[in-house]
Amino acid sequence: MTRIAVVGGGAWGTALADLLVRKGETVTLWAREPDVVAGVNREHLNHLFLPDAPLAPELRAEADLAAAVRGAEVVVSSAPSFAVRETIARAAAALSPGALLVSVSKGLDPERLTTLSCVLGDVLPAGMAIAVLSGPSFAQEVYGRQPTAVVAASHDPAVALRVQQVFATSHFRVYTTSDVLGVELGGALKNVIAVAAGILEGLGLGHNARAALLTRGLAEIARLGVTLGADPITFAGLAGMGDLVLTATATLSRNYTLGIELGKGKSLEQALAGRASVAEGVITARSAVALGERHGVELPIAREVAAVLFQGKSPRRAVSDLMERELKAEHWR
Both 144 and 197 in a single domain? Predict the structure, then answer.
């Protein structure tokens, strides 16, 4: 039995906490929201982020971050990307020296434009083991024990294997890889393409447009990833193509449904109104464009998404500008 702390009481953190408890682990879920803590402990429900999903009675929620992580052998970082640095920095002093940190959030640090495992490396004591878990996985379906496959990434094969063993169940299959950077970039940037896919849907465009967007979106993600040193094979796998297809085609995706509202003519403020959960693609769009500019990598889809989100550009005009760009080869040997 492993003692595990899940830091972040959103839908994904809650679903993983429930999965681990039902596997037989001892799990504490830390949530910032007092209502989430109370609901999990009293009713075994997270009404705010994972409603109508009765949780394992053994799952305990904690409002005190230090108390939640103290003594944990594995700490799962599932806070929204913009809150990871502050949250884990607060937790660092209470962590056990031999604890394993597993990042399951998908995004980039908006200030430093780094991946979230780099953020963890910045705020954690030197030498602490860090891994990433990512892939095509909706919280609601993982909670419902539907077959799901993800990837555990670490530079240390033993750490990746440890994460695989901790999380794997008969319905949650975990593969391993050493390409931490590729896995994180795939998980972060696919959210931007998902917003774009939703915009196409909101505009009433068809299957041709969606196929073109997903294909060129994956090329865009891989182009940046390879420039930064990721393995191109990663982007053809679960953390690349798999996560992109899931997030950019299904109404369970917060980023996709946000894009639909934008395509129908709503402003970003209108589309975000009333949403409890974060649509990471909004934050990541701006970060991706800045990262591409820093490294001289062209990201036309991300650029147009950012223009729609933050500059008031018409979604239909954004599509036209993408289609009317200078003609070029897809691939030339």
Answer: no
